[in-house]
Write a structure and sequence with these properties.
The structure holds 3 protein chains of 3 kinds. Chain A contains 11 helices and 10 strands. By secondary structure, chain A is α/β, with parallel strands linked by helices. Chain C is flat, with a radius of gyration of 23 Å. The chains are: A alpha/beta, B alpha/beta, C mainly alpha. The interface between A and C is medium-sized, with 35 and 33 residues. The complex binds adenosine-5'-triphosphate and magnesium ion (MG).
């Protein structure tokens, strides 16, 4: 805590240049600059208009707040783009931290480092009004089992579908959100599992006649889906990032950002 | 001469610039055996191919029993059964055995199924190929392949047979055998036109010899006349060059 | 002998030197993790059966359609001119579009028109995409085979009074098909790999299953497993195709 406070003071005084005593000093790829990676493209509501530099969108806002907390002014933040694969490949990385809704899992943690979670994502069921009309208004597990499911391959949605829902037909798996919505539109799947903010966005903007069937209570889950910033294995920066996130959780800054960018998430019915 | 079986009237044929047949008039009587002789490139093969409509003629008429088969749009399908042709280069189907080569057309065209077998076996017997009936073309000598090609044509029971240098690939001791077969065929009433480079063959077997030179019929007549007493200089020169 | 010796030297160098590279430990953990290999192998093998099934039901359709297109392209008579044009357009179109695009366009597009289940299945339309592309290639291969049969064969058949249909069926095609067997074998090897493209529209075949494992385990070993399984099928198939090709070449020379 002491270091963080010192850092905060230093950052307030020193601006972009980091003093030697600062936690992150000398631990970033480029001294005095924090290089943050996001997806290509980055999606709403995590990053608005695929422009993280604007600080608009949940992850973009968290990124700048985090940077500030760590002593980097806004103009000391550099953005790069990576795919999931690039991020977990062995070898040198081109980012200090990578924020693109990486769920923290034990297996992933063996290969890369994760920060403390900056968001706990409820999983939500994206479907269509047609499916809702067929019995989705009061969703039961039995109803969910009957559905044809689709998920994005690189997310943790597949184990959730397989273990919690255990559908009668094996789910179809896609590369990205767009393909899942295309499959919903083509009537090839009935429902798909996303984190709630993504599901809300897709149902409102992308899927014609889209609807949210409900969300799973993240607090009830044994293993809730938590997003962490990804760092190279053994990153020296991890301690600084975790400390900064701890401050942001404590002082309500994270909750504030969440309320600003993910406020629609309230009011979606829970699936029991 | 009675009405000719096959009659060519002013037949013209060009391949691009090359004027290969220049006004051919020729009558072939029923049961006659006519030999075409002439230098390489003089147009013998082309003439045979025009006789069964394989090559369309540019001008003139090809009358089979008085019907012009060279008319555009004429249905040549039935004609091809009546005029068999054996090519210089055998053209057996390499993926079929000798028997299958022969049996294909009778089965598909004449709708013969079981009845063809004994007939075809007899033909193989007659041409001394009974032992080779199930062999594939690449297992046969050139001469054997040529005889299979003759059998294949005969199996369709043609009235007229066009033969393009069928002895050129035969072993010398087999030539006589084939000659005998051709004589028998003629006795059966088969009309035959035979292009050949073998003058002794033409002299021995032909009813009439036609000498072609640069796409025209330079001279025609009985073999004795052509070979012993040619009237034209170019016939004489040709014979001198080949009979040396 | 020399070949054997040099091969041995290269193998030894690779085996000895690669582990000396500074990143080797990390690479080994990410790509060659024995435990992950063993754990994911059965599931991946099962997923590969889907590849095999898609392959198996696509091949007959590809060859039937390819043959039809090849024959349409070779249609002689003037009345069949539209057929010939159709064949040419078909071949140009479907050979020109990358398979991936066609898988997406047909796999999502056609069902998007509002087909009811099960007729909107990605298996059906993904297969259609593969069949469209590969039949175009096969049509060209077959056509080249048909054209490679010397005209004298056709002449001989026609002079025997065979119809042009029978000539094609009994004389030209059997020889043409035999002649293009090696080319078609290579086509099948390519198809076996392209079957994996169907995973883009949902089906969980081996590549997708490997991708899922990769995401869950943050480890690339499942891809190595998939590669090994693929090689077990494609290497013998490619060798066999080469063998046929050589045999054919020797037979012709
Ligand atoms: N399909 C074709 N296209 C172009 N030219 C051809 C064709 N067929 C034959 N010719 C030409 O026509 C001429 C006559 O050829 P043809 O085969 O009729 O001669 P030939 O008398 O049978 O010769 P040979 O005794 O060598 O068999 C030759 O100059 C040949 O090159
Ligand atoms: Mg000739």
């Amino acid at each position: 805590m002491k270091t963080v406070l010192t850092a905060a003071i230093f950052s307030a005084l020193a601006g972009a240049a980091l003093a030697d005593g600062h936690c992150a000093a000398g631990k970033t790829l480029t001294d005095g600059t924090l290089t943050i990676a996001t997806g290509n493209p980055a999606y709403y509501p995590w990053v608005i208009d695929d422009a993280p530099e604007s600080g608009q969108g949940f992850e973009a806002a968290v990124a700048y707040a985090l940077a500030e907390e760590m002593g980097f002014a806004a103009d000391a933040v550099t953005w790069v783009r990576t795919s999931f694969d690039e991020a977990i490949q062995p070898g040198a990385k081109n980012f200090d931290i990578n924020m693109q809704q990486y769920s923290i899992t034990e297996e992933r943690d063996k290969v890369v480092d994760f920060s403390a979670p900056y968001y706990t994502a409820p999983q939500a069921v994206l479907t269509t009004e047609t499916v809702m009309a067929a019995g989705g208004t009061s969703p039961t597990m039995d109803f969910l089992k009957e559905l044809k499911w689709g998920v994005v391959a690189s997310t943790t949605a597949l184990p959730v579908v397989m273990e919690q829902i255990q559908p009668n037909q094996s789910p179809l798996v896609y590369d990205d959100n767009v393909n899942v919505t295309a499959a919903i539109q083509a009537g090839q799947i009935d429902a798909a599992l996303f984190d709630l903010p993504t599901a809300l966005y897709l149902s409102a903007v992308v899927v014609e006649g889209g609807a949210i069937l409900g969300q799973f209570d993240p607090n009830a889950a044994e293993d809730p889906d938590q997003f962490g910033a990804l760092m190279p294995e053994g990153s020296a920066l991890k301690a600084c990032v975790d400390a900064a996130l701890a401050v942001m959780t404590e002082n309500g800054r994270l909750a504030e950002i969440e309320a600003q960018w993910l406020q629609e998430a309230t009011g979606v019915p829970l699936i029991k | 001469m009675p009405d000719p079986k096959l009659s060519l009237r002013g037949v013209e044929k060009s391949f691009g610039e090359a004027h290969v047949l220049r006004g051919i008039d020729l009558n072939i009587g029923a049961g006659e055996l006519v030999c075409l002789i002439g230098a390489s490139g003089s147009g013998k093969s082309t003439l045979l191919r025009c006789m069964n409509g394989l090559e369309p003629v540019d001008d003139g008429a090809v009358l089979l029993d008085g019907v012009d088969i060279a008319e555009p749009g004429f249905d040549l399908g039935p004609i091809r059964q009546r005029i068999g042709i054996v090519f210089q280069s055998f053209n057996l189907f390499p993926h079929m055995s000798a028997y299958e080569n022969v049996a294909l057309a009778p089965r598909r065209v004449l709708q013969e199924t079981d009845t063809a077998r004994p007939r075809i076996e007899a033909l193989f017997q007659r041409f001394g190929l009974a032992d080779h009936i199930n062999k594939y073309p690449d297992q046969l000598s050139g001469g054997q392949q040529q005889r299979v090609a003759v059998i294949r044509a005969l199996a369709m029971r043609p009235e007229t047979l066009l033969l393009d240098e069928i002895t050129s690939a035969l072993d010398p001791e087999l030539v006589g055998e084939v000659l005998d077969v051709l004589r028998q065929l003629r006795n059966d009433g088969m009309t035959m036109v035979l292009a050949t480079h073998e003058m002794s063959f033409a002299r021995d077997v032909a009813d009439r010899v036609v000498f072609m030179d640069q796409g025209v019929i330079a001279e025609e007549g009985a073999p004795e006349d052509i070979f012993s007493n040619p009237k034209r200089d170019r016939t004489r020169r040709f014979l001198a060059s080949v009979l040396r | 002998m020399i070949a054997g010796l040099s091969t041995a030297i290269v193998v030894v160098l690779v085996v000895v030197l690669v582990p000396l590279a500074p990143g080797w430990d990390a690479v080994k953990r990410s790509f060659f993790d024995a435990e992950t290999f063993v754990n994911t192998f059965p599931t991946l093998l099962r997923a590969f059966l889907l590849d095999v099934a898609i392959f198996a039901w696509s091949v007959p359709m590809i060859f039937a359609l390819g043959l039809a297109i090849a024959l349409a392209r070779g249609a002689q008579s003037a009345a069949l001119f539209p057929l010939r044009i159709f064949g040419a357009v078909y071949v140009d179109l479907f050979r020109g579009i990358p398979v991936v695009l066609l898988v997406y366009l047909v796999g999502f597009g056609v069902p998007g028109l509002g087909l009811p289940r099960p007729w909107n299945s990605p298996y059906i339309w993904g297969t259609v995409a593969l069949v469209l592309t590969y039949s175009a290639y096969v049509a060209e291969v077959l056509r080249s085979g048909i054209e490679s049969i010397h005209a004298s064969q056709r002449n001989a058949a026609i002079c025997l009074g065979l119809s042009s249909r029978d000539t094609m069926r009994y004389v030209i095609l059997p020889q043409a098909i035999r002649r293009v067997v090696p080319a078609n074998m290579n086509m099948l090897v390519a198809l076996q790999k392209d079957v994996a493209l169907l995973s883009f529209i949902g089906p969980v075949e081996i590549l997708r299953q490997a991708g899922i494992f990769k995401s869950l385990l943050a480890n690339f070993t499942p891809y190595v497993v998939a590669a090994v399984i693929f090689l077990c099928v494609t290497v013998p198939a490619t060798r066999y195709a080469d063998y046929l090709l050589n045999k054919d070449r020797n037979a012709r020379s």
